Model the fold of this input.
Amino acid sequence: MNPYLDGLRGIQPEIVMTITALAALVFDLVLKGRESRRVGYLTLTGLALTSWFLLGQWSEAAPRTVFGMVAIDQFGNFFKLFTVAALAMVVLFVMHDHREREHGVGEYYFLLLGASLGIFFMVSTNNLLLMVLGFELLSLASYSLAGFHKGDRKSAEAAMKYVIFGGLATGIMLYGISLLYGLTGTIDLAKMGTSTGGLVTQLAQSPVPVGIAMVLILAGFAYKVSVAPFHFWTPDVYEGAPTPVTTFLAVGSKAAGFGVMLRFLGAIFLRPGVADSVAAYGDRIGLLLAILAAITMTLGNFAALRQSSLKRMLAYSSIAHAGYVLIGVSCMTEAGFSAALYYLAAYYFMNLGAFGFLLYFEGVNGNDSVDSLKGMGFKAPLISIVMVAFLVSLTGLPPTVGFYGKYLLFVEGVSQGLYWLVVVAALNSVVSLFYYLRVAKALFLSKPADREAEPAPVLTGFVTAFGVATVVLGIYITPLRAWAERSLDVLRG
Amino acid sequence: MGLGAYIAVSAALFALGIVAILVRRNVLYVLMGIEMILNAANINFVAFDRFNQSASGGGGLEGRMFAIFVIILAAAEAAVALAIVLNVFHLFNSVKPSEADLLRE
Done:
């Protein structure tokens, strides 16, 4: 077969998404900014087509590379399907957000699709250049999205803080990549760690330069997933950005950051045929990540205790969850990576649901404080009961998907000898119980509120579906687990 | 000139960029600091590319390619960042991050 046509067939999902993004932009121009909900429907159609092509790549036997850069494999497929699913929910949130209805603008969808296209490329390549370009496409679109409400001072401030931190992190990461390129003579991750690769000779001379390059690159990834000490932007940006954008940053962008981190570490240190000295070096990087994981989850959970705004609380909780996922990464084993993927999938259900609840009550109360939720559980019973399921799952208690995710992470941590880390994580889960329960307490253990909650049937319906999934997938665990395991084909061949 | 000289220049530029970001209170200087860091990476890319080629006797153009793309990235990032800063200036009448402080504990 013609290799060029074969390559085009490989990137069908990306092509469809690009066309959708451009079509959304043009359609909005044609509509002249009125009835932007129709642009939302167009976007959802495009996303459905994209996922259809992604599912077409589901059964492809072996990983392959097209155009010398884009890797078509199940690992990328996992994160692409994840992104499409997250984006579809975010689009629904935009269509049902009271503030977005007032703004009524279609560029929103264009920027969201552009950010997702960045994710598509950054998670499906072993080539550092394409990885950086995808990373930047995601970042630039996210900066604009965070400041989307131009007249809103909080939104503007959030965008400025995001762009400063993001620019700094990208710069540091690029400097690290330039050093790694100099040390190994290649920008192809798969060629670095093999017995003939540049890392072996460099490590034989001195581990320090490689260490500097690795730390600088990981700093860039740490910023994207908001791991300490690069988490400072997270609470401010999450609070100031429009809630649908916050959802996208907390779920889609964070998962993409982990996707890049896992592929980077996996491609260099965990592939078959990696030299022994390189693999041993990988374990030392794992130890560094384990320490960062402990710091991150502790910082996130203790800061979340003090928050009066639900949105800011969820921001700190998302920092803590980045710490939990990092346990799986720091194991530097296939089982650890698969536990991290499982936890990300679990995080998708419980966190998207929690943000849907937040969006609904922002519409009802006009603000996002926990106090304003007092007694509202009796006025909007369904969504509030479902929220309790999300809170239980975020804490990591059975019978929810979050429990099994944490169980997998802890088991792999113990089997790799990271006892101290598992103890820290378990204690952290107890701490997190306090602030998650505060929301449930405000909802149900106060006097019924004297205000009425305006019903939002579509939003409530989707959030309820996520609640059902959170519980059902916590009992019937095989499908997500099997998906996470088969997605690690990149580590096998 | 040897490779060491280029790396020394780029490391100095990187350090100056970090210092500019940490010390200056004005967003525009912070953005300049970011540009300096990106250019430090560019010097590395081009220098390493040249010396890798003379070491291996020809080969890829990966480093130079990377540098060109980083220049484009820097331009795109500056455009987005300046638009955001302009909006902040309209709303707060200041380009100092310390004076835009609605978001905090």
